[in-house]
C-alpha cells in the first residue's frame, strides 16, 4: 500500500447512497415525530452524548453517522466482514489510531454482509477496503491490510487535506478521555449537573413549558455561554409558541397574507416541529430578503432561534446561514 495524494480526483459519487439513506432517515424521523407529538411534542434537552470515535454504521444510519458527520470531521470508512482474516489484522490498527487521534478522525465500520448496498455504491472490489468521507465527498484510501506506520501516514495526509481544502479540523475531544478509551479505561467522571439546569430539563420533560423557559433563562443569567441551556431554551420557546396553534388556520393565514411577517414566522415554527427543516429555513430566509427594519430583524432573529433548536453542526443550518448571509449582505 502506498499513501495516496489527497486530491479529490478519485472521489466517489455518493448521491445514490445519500438519497437512499435520506429516505430511510426521513421515515425514522417521521416515526420519532409522531411519538414525540403523542407525548406532548417534547424532546429532552439533555447534554450531547459522549463523542464516539469508533462507530458501527448500517445503511439506515449512513446519512447521519457518515455524511452529516463528515462536515465537521474526516470519517474513515472501514469495509470489513467477520470471515475476512486481513480485516482482523487491519481493524485493530484503525481503531487504535482513531482513539489516539482524539477527534481528528472518526472511524466508521461497515460489515459488508449485513449492509450489501453500501460497498456496491462505493465500488468496493475486495476487503478490507478503506475510504474517507470529507464534507460529503468520498475518496478511496487503500485496500488490503497494511502496517501501522503506513496507515498512520495516510491518516496524517487525510487530516491535512481536510483542513487545507475544507477547513475541517475535527471534533473537540478531551485528550485524557481519548487516551483512557484507547487503553480501555473509563474516562474522568463528568462534573455534577447544574441543579437549575436539571430542573429546567425536568420541567421540559413534564410539559411545563413556561417553567422550563424561566429555568433555562435563570441558568443563562449566571452562565451566558451555557450551550445546553441555550438549546433547551430554544426548544421550550418553540414548543410554547406552537402548542396552542390551529395548524390549518395558521397555514391559511400565511398563504392569504404573504407579506404578514408574523404569519410567516408561525408557519416556520410549525414546519420545524413537523420535521420540515429546510422549508422552515427557506421561508424565513425569503422573509428576511423581502422585508426591512424591525420586520427584517424579527424574521432574522427567529431564524437564529431555530438554528439553535436544530443545532449548529447540522449541514442544513450551515446551508441556511450561507443563504441568510447572501440576502443580508
From TrEMBL:
Pfam families: Thioredoxin (PF00085), TPR_19 (PF14559), TPR_20 (PF14561)
PROSITE patterns per UniProt: THIOREDOXIN_2 (PS51352)
Bias type Low complexity, positions: 32-47
InterPro entries linked to this entry: Thioredoxin-like_sf (IPR036249), Thioredoxin_domain (IPR013766), TPR-like_helical_dom_sf (IPR011990)
Disordered, as annotated region: 28-47, 177-196
Origin superkingdom: Bacteria
Every Thioredoxin domain range: 42-160
Protein name, UniProt field: Tetratricopeptide repeat protein
Protein species of origin: Streptomyces boetiae
Lineage of producing organism: Bacteria, Bacillati, Actinomycetota, Actinomycetes, Kitasatosporales
